[in-house]
Amino acid sequence: MQTITLQYDTQNVLIKNIIDSAVLAGAKIIEPEKKDENLSVNDDVLSAYQKMFGKRKGNKYTENEVFIFNSKLNSSKTFAKYL
After folding, report:
1. Residue 12 — very low, low, confident or very high, per pLDDT cuts 50/70/90?
2. Which of 8, 28, 65, 75 would be a feasible disulfide site paired with 61, CB 3.0-4.6 Å?
């Protein structure tokens, strides 16, 4: 059994008919698995997050905090090039 990933216009009647025909022929629609992103995979990153924002229950940080951390990290690398 093979898996196919399609990107299509959901308003297109022809592609809807093709997908319906495939399902009737025995194909299955499988929802993608949600990846549990955990910062504990990379302890250096986790310790840097904890140093900047404090320790959190379950090591969960908001998207804004991740953005700020990555921005600071990338800007420090850029500035280091020119010093």
Report:
1. very high
2. 65
**Residue 35 confidence (pLDDT):** 65
12-18 contacts at long range (C-beta below 8 A, 24 or more positions apart): none
Written as one letter, the residue type at 35 is K
Per-residue pLDDT of 34-73, as tens digits, reads 765 554 557 778 888 888 888 888 888 888 988 988 898 8
Query: 15 near 8, Cβ under 8 Å?
Result: yes
φ and ψ at 60, to 5 degrees?
-100, 130
Those residues with Cβ within 8 angstroms of residue 19's Cβ, 6 or more apart along the chain or in another chain: 6
DSSP secondary-structure letter at 82?
Answer: T
